[in-house]
Amino acid sequence: MEPRIPPTPPPPVVHFIAITGGGSFALSSGQSVTSNFTLDRDNVTSAVSLGAGPLPAGVTAVFTPASLPASSAAQGFSLTLTAAADAAPVNTTIEVTATGSTPTEAVHASQTVAVQVQSVGQVRPLYHLLTMLYAPPGTVGGLDSQVVYETGSSTGVTDLVTSSFKSGVNVTASVGASVDVESLTVALGGSGEFNAAWTSTESSSVTIEKSGSYTIKVPGPDENTIDHTQDLYYLWLNPLINVTVDWQNNVLWEIAVDGPTMLIQYVTAAELQNPSLMSPGLSQALSARGLTNTDYAQILASNPFFAGNAAIPPGRFLPTGMSFPYIPPQPGEGLPSLTQTVTTTATTTSTSQTQVQYTVSVSASAGFQVIFNDTLKVGGSFQWTNQSKTTATQGSTQSATVTVGCPGAGYTGPTNVLVFWDTVFNSFMFEFAAA
């Protein structure tokens, strides 16, 4: 009799579940991101519970559906992560888990999701100095003098903000689009008086300039002199900065307008020195924004000539090589005036750069103030730095139309007016040749 061969036992039953999906995601504070997954089953038909963790502070997780019903087929589900407005920047990995059961044991599966949380908020500086425009020589009894900045002029400033942040914070600027764009210019507000421009050559700065369709006329005073107390300061009262801070302390700032339209007011040096000279409407507009005498003094200090007879600072003010006669009429003569287009073509190029700095208070959107303050040298305080630009670095010619009338009879002062270029505010400044 042949020996009996025992039957081969059946292979053991494998009970298995697996999760596919996940990936890597960027999550901004106050926003949500959703990731999709698939649960595959092998001999596990029970209901499956879902979990996620560990979650960083300020981040919540919601599964859709909350759990998977009993089934023998593959099932899909999603995980939505939501960051609170005060969620701190972090780079973390979240484990997504699934737990089912067999008649004898529990079965588990997991998958990971890499999440980089970045904090996003809005910052409102108290004000922004858009430009400073110098009054031309005045006249008494003659034809009015004026400077007209129109199509050929883009007076304005280049803003740097890196000095506001702590060491180790990497600052990059934007104007509403990817900073990979080689050159980008956008209109600020619906009225479009000024444009904001970003270029890759100075990735941490933004240039704000008068648009070509916006014309500014600066009159001369009603006196036979150059009166720098009549110089004009253009103040932007509702600037907004959109700020993003990531877990590596990279700060991206984007200039914007707090509302549909830029709110711009101009004020003279005389009014900053003595606010009682302001019109009631101007005084109310500035005080309603929160400007005080301390701010007025700081704004005034950006002009080295307001106190009279100051030496012309080298580097910031460059000679244009242009001049105007300023001669009173003789008895019986008419009242001549000279109109000419002044340009920066003849300015002496310089490799030196000068800066005008002023500090303003800032408030941040809810939940973002603490995070933003953590990146600043001084919490709640923001420093604008306006950096000079020479003709060579601008790559284009600036121009303005200048009309200089003659002084009144009996004038005995200097008779020649020189024109200089302010490389910080991109405007023309006038001084007598004797000075």
Description of the structure:
By secondary structure, the protein is mostly beta strands. The chain has two domains: 16-119, Sandwich (Immunoglobulin-like); 126-432, no CATH class. The chain contains five helices and 28 strands. The chain has helices at 269-273, 280-289, 293-300, 369-375, 391-394; strands at residues 16-21, 23-28, 32-42, 48-53, 59-64, 67-68, 75-83, 90-101, 106-125, 128-133, 146-149, 156-160, 170-174, 183-187, 194-199, 205-210, 216-219, 232-236, 239-245, 250-257, 264-268, 317-325, 337-343, 355-364, 381-387, 399-405, 416-422, 427-432. The strands form five sheets. Strands 2, 4, 6, 8, 9, 12, 13, 14, 15, 16, 19, 20, 24 and 25 form a 14-stranded mixed sheet that branches. A hairpin with a 4-residue loop joins strand 19 (239-245) and strand 20 (250-257). The radius of gyration is 33 Å and the shape is rod-shaped.
Give me the secondary-structure category: mainly beta
Determine the N-to-C terminus distance.
Answer: 132 Å
Oligomeric state of shown chains: single chain
Catalogue the unreliable spans: 391-395
Quantity of strands, as a count: 28
Strand content: over 45%
Helix-residue proportion: under 10%
Rg, rounded, reads: 33 Å
Q: Major sheet: size, sense and barrel closure?
A: 14 strands, mixed
Number of domains: 2
The DSSP helix count reads 5
Broad shape: rod-shaped
Determine the mean pLDDT.
87
